[in-house]
Amino acid sequence: MSGIKLSRLWQPGRLLFWQWVFFNVMSSACAWAMRAFPLNTVGLVLLACIALLNVAFGLAAAWLLMREPPPAR
Fold it and tell me: How many folded domains does the chain comprise?
């Protein structure tokens, strides 16, 4: 795990950072909607799949942000 720094996540100048933030916000919104609204089974499964995909994409984006060095200033 050498070369991975948690501080590399904070790169607001990169599009990948904002995609990571978006994926995290969307998965939280899906989880909130699943609890807040009376949905049928199909709606719950659909929102759960979308939330899980957002989590997976968010983890992939975070991994890429931590692996790549920040751009030179």
Answer: 1
Q: 0.85 cut: is pTM over it?
A: no
The amino acid present at 37, given as its one-letter code, is F
Tokens read off for 4: 């991975």
Burial of 50 (0-12, 13-18, 19+ CB in 10 A): middle
Tell whether 3 is covered by a domain: no
Q: How far is 43 from 53, CA to CA, in rounded Å?
A: 15
The domain containing residue 25 runs over which residues? 15-67
The 10s digit of each residue's pLDDT in 2-53 is: 566 777 888 888 999 999 999 999 999 999 999 999 999 999 999 999 999 9
For residue 54, is it within any domain?
yes
Query: Is residue 10 a part of any domain in this protein?
Result: no
